[in-house]
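User: Sequence in, structure out. Go.
Assistant: Echoing your sequence, followed by the C-alpha cells.
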Amino acid sequence: MLAFPKQEFQERLKKTKQRMASEGIDVLLVTDPANMNYLSGYDAWSFYVHQLLVVIIDEEQPYWIGRGLDANAARYTTWLDEAHIYPYPDNYVHSTVRHPMDFVCDFLKGNKRDKTTIAVELDAYYFTAQCYIRLTQGLKNASFKDGTNMVNWIRIIKSDQEIDYIKKAAKISEKAMQVAFDTLNNGVRECDVAASISHAQISGMDEYGGDYPSIVPLLPTGKKTSACHLTWTDETFKEGNPIIIELAGCHKRYHSPLARTAVIGMPNEEIQRLSEVVIEGLNTALDVVKPGITCEAVELAWRKSIEKNSLKKESRIGYSTGLNYPPDWGEHTASLRPGDRTVLEPNMVFHMIPTIDLGHVGMEISESFRVTETGCEVLANFPRELFVKPNIRLA
C-alpha cells in the first residue's frame, strides 16, 4: 500500500519538473534514496547497490532502474506502472567488467535522451565518482549539470500527511527516550541501553510500528560527551558521569529526532549549570521561530542567550529534517546558523540541537519542531531538563 495518494506523488513530480525547466534540465537522475522515495514511494534496503529514478521532463512517470532482484520491491512500493520499472541483470552488481551506469547510458540512448542536458546528484551519498565517470564516458554527447539537493529543497515544506507521520515518529522518540532513562543505571552496560532504545524504536507504539532510523542511538558518556557522535561500547555507566542520548523515532521513513543528557546520581555544579544555559538558549531560540523569520535569526537568538554566560558555539544549532535513509536523517537544505537566510514557512520541520562542548564535557538537549502559521510546534512532549537518575546499586 502506498504511503501517500498517487496524486501527491504526481504533484511532487510536477514541482520537480518545474525546477528542472527553470534550470534547463531535460533529464534528472535521482540517486538519493530519500528522493527516490519522495517521488515514487520506493522503499527497500537496496541502496548498497546502484539504483536511481530517471525523471524525464516530458514523461508522466519517472523510470525506476535498479537491480533485478529488487524489481519486485519497486512493484510493491511505488506508483509506477510496469513499463517504468526497468531492472538491470545481476552481472552488473559489484562487477569489474561492467557498471550499472553503463546500463543507464544504454537506457538513455535507447530513449534518445543521450544528447540532452542531464542533471545528477553529485553530492549524494550513494552517487560515486565511478558513477559520474561511467555516465560521462557513456554519454559523450550529453551536457551534465549538478542536480544536488534539487528534490531536497522541494521536500522542505511538508504535506499534512507527512506532518502526521512525523508526529507519529515523535511519539516513538518519546517512548525510546523514556526507555533509555528507565534502563540506564550505575553498572549497566552501554550496549544494553542501546539495545533497549533500538527495541523501542522499532516496536513503536501499540497503534503503529516504527522503522529503522537513519542513525543508530548515539550514547557518549563522561568526557566522551565532548565527542557527540560516538555510539556505545560494552563498558558500564558510572555514577556522576554525564550521558548524552540522541535518537529518533521513525515512521514511514519520517524522523523526529530528540536528544537529552542524563546523570546517574547527583550532577556536579558544572554539569547542572551547563544544562541550565543550554535549556535557556533553546527556549529563547524556539520562542522566536515563526513564518517569515530567517534561519540565521533563530541562531542569533540562541547565540545572544549563551553569550550572557560567556559561552560560544561554532557549529550550527539545527537543520531541516524529515524523510531519509542511512546515514543521516537531515535533509541537507536549511541550517540554523549564521549566513543561512532561508525564510521559515509553515510545515517546515527542524531538529534544533544546540550542543555545547567545553572540551572535557558536552551537553545536548534538543527538540524537533514544526513551523506553524503563527510560531512553532514542538513535536515531542518530553521534559526539557537534565535527567537525574537516582543511583540504585545493583546486586
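User: And one key feature?
Assistant: The chain has two domains: 6-155, 160-389.
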